[in-house]
């Protein structure tokens, strides 16, 4: 631990501050609203307004109806790159998509074979009515962690770009990841995954999944 040395100016400032504090203790403290209290005061709602806000937060929106259009069984191909500039590995996959909790969330269960081993993954997609963002969680049998990413809908590209972090066991820490989910048409979707390059500069494509419905 580095030693801390007080300059003469710092010492004088410290002593004067202590004297001021001691004098202030003799006087009755004036109550002032904290930053948190001010924020709460600004957002104070009537019981009826509070109930309405919670109802709007809990009610599936038009975005949730759009999400529900992906419900059903999908088949697809998966292309993976284990390292930058590596030869791609291809496999087939099946995906089952459904809305849960009365249309509030969507789950995607994917089964495949990767590197000669059975692969099973489960994703949960939420759309937060207040934040106006999509939140995606992912778990699979190739790890023991939980990956969380967030993104917004891009009407022009018909896609959502999710960003977040995931654990990379080879480096023993989290790395930045990016996922691009694109709706090609009513029966075709594409998912692309990117992660930080080994040198820490830029990113490289790690996975591409093309899904076809029906």
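^ structure tokens above, recovered residues below v
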């Amino acid at each position: 631990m580095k030693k801390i040395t007080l300059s003469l100016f710092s010492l004088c400032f410290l002593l004067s501050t202590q004297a001021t504090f001691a004098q202030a203790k003799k006087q009755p403290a004036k109550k002032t609203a904290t930053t948190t209290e001010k924020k709460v005061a600004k957002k104070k709602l009537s019981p009826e307004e509070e109930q309405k806000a919670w109802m709007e937060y809990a009610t599936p929106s038009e975005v949730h109806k759009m999400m529900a259009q992906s419900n059903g069984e999908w088949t697809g191909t998966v292309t993976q790159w284990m390292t930058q500039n590596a030869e791609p590995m291809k496999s087939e996959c099946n995906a089952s998509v459904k809305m849960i909790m009365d249309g509030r969330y969507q789950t995607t269960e994917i089964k495949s074979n990767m590197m000669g081993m059975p692969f099973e993954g489960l994703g949960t997609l939420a759309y937060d009515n207040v934040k106006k963002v999509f939140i995606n969680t992912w778990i699979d049998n190739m790890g023991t962690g939980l990956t969380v990413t967030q993104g917004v809908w891009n009407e022009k590209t018909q896609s959502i770009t999710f960003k977040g972090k995931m654990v990379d066991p080879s480096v023993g820490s989290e790395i930045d990841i990016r996922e691009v989910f694109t709706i090609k048409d009513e029966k075709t979707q594409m998912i692309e995954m990117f992660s930080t390059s080994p040198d820490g500069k830029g990113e490289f494509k790690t996975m591409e999944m093309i899904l076809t419905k029906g």
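The beta strands are 72-80, 89-100, 105-114, 117-128, 133-140, 147-154, 159-168, 173-185, 188-196, 203-213.
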